[in-house]
Specification:
Elements lengths: L4 E2 L2 E2 L4 E4 L5 H10 L5 E4 L6 H7 L3 H10 L2
Parallel strand pairs: 3-4
Antiparallel strand pairs: 1-2
Helix pairs in contact: 1-3
Organism: Acacia crassicarpa (northern wattle)
GO biological process, one term: rRNA base methylation
Protein name: 25S rRNA (uridine-N(3))-methyltransferase BMT5-like domain-containing protein
């Protein structure tokens, strides 16, 4: 796979995002790379998917997109 870069991030690196909120930054980077296989986003509040969707309504749309991208 060809390396793609966005500012400080490279598609060749393994990337962990902590306290990602609605996971929109992970999705943005995954779209730029064409894959989310090297990205791990987590919400350290340990909220359930239902609780996350109350705090961050866009999460219900974002998570399936991330899953689709790997």
């Amino acid at each position: 796979m060809e390396e793609k870069t966005k500012k400080h991030f490279s598609s060749k690196n393994k990337i962990l995002f902590v306290v990602e909120g609605d996971f929109s930054f992970s999705l943005c980077l995954a779209k730029a790379f064409g894959s989310a296989s090297n990205i791990c986003g987590c919400n350290v509040s340990l909220d359930s998917k239902d609780t996350l969707s109350l705090k961050y309504p866009r999460t219900l749309n974002i998570l399936p997109e991330l899953e689709h991208l790997g």
